Amino acid sequence: MGIFLDEIILHLVAGKGGNGVVSFRREKYVPKGGPDGGDGGDGGSIYFKADNSVSTLGHLSFHRKIKAKDGDNGRGKNQTGKNGEDIYIPVPPGTSIYQDNILLADLCNVDDTFLAVKGGKGGKGNQHFATSVNQTPRKATPGKKGEEKNLKLSLKLIADIGLVGLPNAGKSTFLSVTTSANPKIASYPFTTIYPNLGSFSYDNIEYFIIADIPGLIEGASEGKGLGTRFLKHIERTKLLLFILDGEKIEFEEQLITLFNELNNFSSVLANKPFFVSISKIDIPLVQSEVQKFLSRLPIEILLPDNKKVMINEIMAFSSFNKEGISEILAKTSSFLIEQKKSQK
Ligand SMILES: Nc1nc2c(ncn2[C@@H]2O[C@H](COP(=O)(O)OP(=O)(O)OP(=O)(O)O)[C@@H](O)[C@H]2O)c(=O)[nH]1
Ligand SMILES: [Mg+2]
Question: Is the pTM above the cut of 0.85?
Answer without folding.
Answer: no
